UniProtKB/TrEMBL annotation:
Cited Pfam families: TRM5-TYW2_MTfase, Trm5_N
A Gene Ontology term for the protein's cellular component: cytoplasm
GO biological process, one term: tRNA methylation
Domain SAM-dependent methyltransferase TRM5/TYW2-type: 81-323
Superkingdom field: Archaea
Regions annotated as coiled coil: none
Protein name: RNA methyltransferase
GO molecular function (one): tRNA methyltransferase activity
SUPFAM superfamilies: S-adenosyl-L-methionine-dependent methyltransferases
Record's keyword terms, sorted: Membrane, Methyltransferase, S-adenosyl-L-methionine, Transferase, Transmembrane, Transmembrane helix, tRNA processing
Length: 325
């Protein structure tokens, strides 16, 4: 259905959505949509700079299912779920008798229910398959296909902006180290859009490495890549990287391994979890830790990725090594 909307670049979409929600202009009856380059934010009316876009109404799925289910006296319709490619994940249990309706209306192959938290350092999801045969899910995002088994490896839809941001940076000719590569969340965007001289990738979860290798093939990556399975503090080779990606909430515990593989000018993109009240100061603590280890680093960017629960923030800071003492 044609609606007014603001077309935003992926990098600024989060801020724009927040702004229009705060102004009461976001039309929540429609899905926010995206294509290769832009995010389309539905608005309740025309404003300066808005354009028309064909949106899918949110109610389609729910109204139909709710009507059917009410007639049959069934509960938990309209339960929150997230969609990842050809699969959906319900946050809480749902009557098995209406599950197939979601499958047919949303045209998905697999339906899972979250049974607990993401487990351990390998970040293994706790998902129960309640519809379909499971196995591989394919998520297409910003021109990259991510293949994975959602019961074996995690995929955070909330990190979309940080992943797609990678495609706007030119990494041509650089040596990149991805210390927690997973299935290639960040590095596939880089490899698809730039031609680094070398990409060294590591993850401790063998299932992630299995899907990473598959994703490198499916996305026809031609650059030189070296893949390591194990703890990035112990299995990584001696090297000097131009850019280091640390996509792990505990990256602070890996700072020695990262600094040892840096040189003057290296940029380190570090993800970390911090209490909300420290979200603008934790980066200074990291600078101090590096200093004590003999590395002068400066924080050149510190951005919020997403809120994690009511009191914590997932942040991404970029540090530049300016001196080695
Ligand atoms: C939070 S996940 C990455 C999520 C991802 N950034 C996204 O966008 O969805 C962190 C990854 O670090 C890996 N990991 C944890 N400890 C590790 C270690 N010591 N060495 C290497 N990889 C590790 C996990 O297996 C997991 O794949």
């Amino acid at each position: 259905m044609e609606r007014s909307c603001i077309r935003s670049s992926k990098i600024s979409a989060d801020d724009a959505i927040k702004k229009f929600r705060a102004l009461g202009l976001l039309d929540t009856a429609y899905h926010i949509e995206q294509d290769e380059n832009y995010v389309y934010i539905p608005l309740i009316r025309h404003i300066g700079g808005s354009i028309n876009h064909d949106f899918k109404p949110r109610e389609d799925v729910f109204t139909g299912i709710e009507k059917d289910s009410e007639r049959r006296g069934l509960k938990n319709t309209g339960a929150p779920y997230i969609r990842l490619g050809n699969s959906i994940i319900f946050k809480s249990s749902i009557s098995r008798r209406i599950v197939y309706k979601y499958a047919s209306r949303l045209k998905v192959d697999n339906i899972y229910v979250e049974t607990g938290k993401i487990r351990g350092i390998k970040r293994e999801p706790s998902l129960k398959l309640i519809y379909g045969s499971g196995g591989e899910t394919i998520v297409r995002e910003s021109g990259v296909s991510y293949i994975m088994d959602l019961q074996k490896v995690m995929f955070s839809p909330g990190n979309i902006n940080t992943r797609s941001k990678m495609k706007f940076i030119d990494f041509t000719g650089m040596v990149i180290l991805d210390m927690f590569c997973g299935i290639g969340y960040f590095s596939l965007q880089i490899l698809k859009n730039s031609r680094p001289a070398r990409m060294v990738m590591c993850d401790i979860n063998p299932d992630s490495i299995h899907y990473l290798k598959k994703n490198l093939q499916v996305n026809r990556i031609k650059s030189k890549v070296d893949v390591y399975t194990g703890d990035s503090r112990s299995v990584l080779p001696v090297m000097q990287a131009d850019y280091i990606i640390m996509g792990n909430f505990n990256s602070i515990n890996f700072i020695v391994a990262a600094l040892l593989r840096s040189r003057i000018g290296t940029q380190i993109s570090m993800h970390y979890l911090t209490p909300t009240e420290s979200m603008n100061s934790t980066q200074d603590v990291i600078v101090d830790i590096a200093r004590k280890l003999g590395y002068v680093i400066e924080c050149i960017e510190n951005t919020k990725v997403k809120s994690v629960g009511p009191h914590y923030q997932h942040m991404n800071a970029i540090f530049k090594v300016s001196r080695i003492l």
